[in-house]
Write a structure and sequence with these properties.
Rossmann fold; 11 helices; binds beta-D-galactofuranose
């Protein structure tokens, strides 16, 4: 019996199907896993663009000029890149609100979560949920204590170095020693923990930290803290300096110092952030140094997010290069400050 003729059309079709099918089998271009920290890398096709990106940014709050500038950097960068959607929320400095926002983003199936954590602890559960949903997380600005395998990278500042830089300023400002007060940031936040640690690492032994209280990084909360300090300690006699973890609290502290009759220059004050408010405080003679902490992280966040969407390796830690600003340059630089 003659073999049935198989029309040439069928042969060609079968051939095409087998070629197409074999294409589907070609091993995806796997990128070397940059460590167990990343969800299983998707095929590194590099085909995703910013127009495909939905990024979740559960912002911690609006407590300071630094935070306002950080939010602006994220929103402006998202708009300029023309991403598909920025899922932005304001947690009003409450961790539970950030966690709820992250869960909503997981539910939505966003491409990347960029998290600026209000405090270091308490993130393992929700980061595990994100990892199980194969949504990469970039920790931004402040650090977390969670297992590093639960997030892809950290983009921000070396907070301990900022504290060490402040200590170096006090070592110069108080060469014969003395006592300083500390107005610290949000309790348990990576920024406050790091700055406090750095200060204590490098402060000369002849300079004593007389007392430390939190002002939660806000101007309003710093006023009563400084007022309480002034009730307890005599400026110039009991203490000669103040380390303030951010400019907003510094401006609040100045209000209390003025009301108590303290004059610019009576105390050696070192602040952190380098905002316009901090520069003005240096021009007015209140701050003797302002340690930079840069909030403009938007471009780095989105560049890394796109790499993660395309399954490309990313650095585990991206630290911003920062400096210290001084009164003698403040007047000239103030008009150029972008935050
Ligand atoms: C530091 C950032 C801090 C700023 C404050 O990276 O988290 O939070 O120093 C802000 O001004 O409120």
């Amino acid at each position: 019996m003659k073999a049935p003729r198989v029309s040439s059309t069928i042969v060609i079709a079968a051939l095409l199907i087998s070629i197409l099918a074999s294409c589907g089998q070609a091993p995806a271009t796997t990128t070397p896993d940059a460590g167990a920290s990343q969800p299983a890398a998707a095929a590194n096709t590099g085909t995703k663009t910013y127009k495909d990106m939905t990024l979740c940014y559960p912002q911690l709050g609006a407590e300071s000029d630094w935070r306002t500038a950080n939010t602006a950097s994220i929103k402006e960068t998202a708009a300029s890149l023309g991403i598909k959607q920025l899922v932005f929320s304001d947690a009003q400095q409450k961790q539970e609100n950030q966690i709820s926002a992250i869960r909503a983003c997981i539910q939505q199936g966003v491409d990347v979560i960029a998290l600026p954590p209000v405090v270091e602890d308490g993130w393992d559960a929700v980061l595990t949920e994100a990892k199980n949903a194969n949504i990469p997380v970039i920790v931004v600005d402040r650090s977390v204590s969670a297992d590093p395998s639960l997030y892809a990278s950290y983009i921000g500042s070396d907070m301990a170095l900022e504290g060490e830089r402040a200590a170096a300023e006090f070592n110069k400002l108080l060469p014969n020693g003395g006592a300083i007060l500390e107005l610290s940031g949000t309790t348990g936040s990576g920024a406050a923990v790091g700055r406090a640690e750095g200060l204590r690492n490098k402060l000369n032994a002849n300079i004593k930290i007389l007392d430390s209280q939190t002002g939660n990084f806000t101007r309003a909360e710093a006023v009563p803290v400084m007022q309480a300090f002034l009730k307890k300690y005599k400026p110039g006699t009991d203490f000669q300096g103040v380390f303030i973890h951010n400019d907003d609290m510094g401006i609040g502290a100045i209000e209390a110092l003025k009301a108590a009759g303290v004059k610019p220059g009576d105390l050696k004050i070192v602040s952190v952030d380098g905002t316009r408010g901090g520069f003005q405080a240096m021009v007015d003679g209140w701050f003797q140094a302002d340690v930079e902490c840069n909030p403009l992280l938007g471009p780095q966040v989105f560049e890394m997010a796109l790499k993660l969407m395309n399954g490309q390796p990313v650095d585990r830690k991206v630290l911003t290069n920062e400096t210290v600003y001084y009164p003698d340059q403040a007047k000239e630089l103030l008009p150029t400050r972008t935050y």
